[in-house]
Amino acid sequence: MEKSKILISHPTGNTFVRALLNECEEKDLLEKFFTTIGKGKNTNFILKNISNRRAYPIPDQKIYRQWFPEISRLLFGRYKTQKERKNDTDKVYEKLDRKVSENLEKLNVSCVHGYEDGAAHTFRRAKELGIRCSYELPIAHWATSRRLLGKEAERYPEWIPTLDSISENEEKLHRKEQELELADCISCPSEFVLQSLPENIRNAKPCQVAHFGSPDVSDSQIEKVDQKNNQKLKILFVGSMSQRKGLADLFNALKILNTHHVSLTIVGQPAMPISFYRAQHTDFKHIPSCSNDTVKSIMRSHDILILPSIVEGCALVQLEALSCGLPIMITRNTGGEDFIDEKETGFLVPTGNPEKIAEKIEWLICNRSILPKMKILSKNKSTKYKWEIYAKNILDYCK
């Protein structure tokens, strides 16, 4: 039988995996989706109880589930150290990767699409069977990440416990390199990630930028800006509370400003006890990780999202903010450089530069009247990025 379908594998799924699955199913290209815990359409009454975070827009019979060790990771993770939790996550990725490789020969596929840390075994077997290997690298290449975060460890030694990517073991790094070598084509979410690839990889095979899409938010959901000069400028930070996300630089920028004309809200999971962050900067409101709808509601009540990341792929929160009419202040390393029209949709600041962040915040405090226009322009910018286009770009590379 002629092989003509696509197999996709990802342990936990996310927004961009769902977008690709949806496009594959609509084009009748999906053979199977391998994951850990998940449910599809028309599932049985037992699987319906699975959280919607693990729901996928495909027929349930197209989902292959490997429940363990993911269930164990979820049940016992709270009792383990950060390092142990990271090791458990790595095991989940590798075991699913092995399971895919063991089943490849039984399936009617012409292409497998895999993600970083979960494709080495799959790709090796696919090569033996003459199956095309499509690879998606969602964050900067490990060598770039290690180099940049190593500098942050020197700048902010007290933040080292939040920089887990600088301590990955050699075996895992070897698998990452194998995945790149075995891939027939590579997709990246931003130019920053693409340029982080080793030059020999970029020269040896097709590599592309496939921009993520933006969620749909109606204009009626976007709140009007309070233009009173005596109101505080409401700053929002969304993401893990680490220096990989540039949180130390944001704290230092606010120290430089030393003004009561701003407020800071942080939405995200701490990597350290909350007392650590209060010692760095006392005046912020903390909201633990919450649902996506809640995050969007919070976004609509703020003036600007600031994400001065050191290393990203393309932080989805940027497009989520723009879709809510929230301007953004970011570094090039967030992967969102293309989203910025200076002083219209937001601001681009250098990486690791609290002074520039402070300068842009001060400018915005002094020019609050521009915020209503920036909200409109931000919303308009977000509409140019569609999940359908992202998925089509990936599928074109799978051919």
Order of strands in the sheet with the most strands? 5-2-1-6-7-8-9
What is the H-and-E element order?
EHEEEEHHEHEHHEHHEEHEHEHEHEEHHH
Beta-strand residue fraction: 15-25%
Quote the CATH topology of the largest domain: Rossmann fold
How are the SSEs ordered, and which strands pair?
Elements: E1 5-9, H1 15-26, E2 30-35, E3 39-41, E4 55-59, E5 63-65, H2 70-76, H3 82-103, E6 109-115, H4 120-129, E7 132-136, H5 142-155, H6 170-182, E8 185-188, H7 191-196, H8 199-204, E9 207-209, E10 233-238, H9 247-257, E11 262-267, H10 274-280, E12 285-287, H11 292-299, E13 304-307, H12 316-323, E14 328-330, E15 346-348, H13 354-366, H14 371-382, H15 387-398
Parallel strand pairs: 1-2, 1-6, 2-5, 3-4, 6-7, 7-8, 8-9, 10-11, 10-13, 11-12, 13-14, 14-15
In short:
With 399 residues, this protein is an alpha/beta fold. It has helices at residues 15-26, 70-76, 82-103, 120-129, 142-155, 170-182, 191-196, 199-204, 247-257, 274-280, 292-299, 316-323, 354-366, 371-382, 387-398; strands at residues 5-9, 30-35, 39-41, 55-59, 63-65, 109-115, 132-136, 185-188, 207-209, 233-238, 262-267, 285-287, 304-307, 328-330, 346-348.
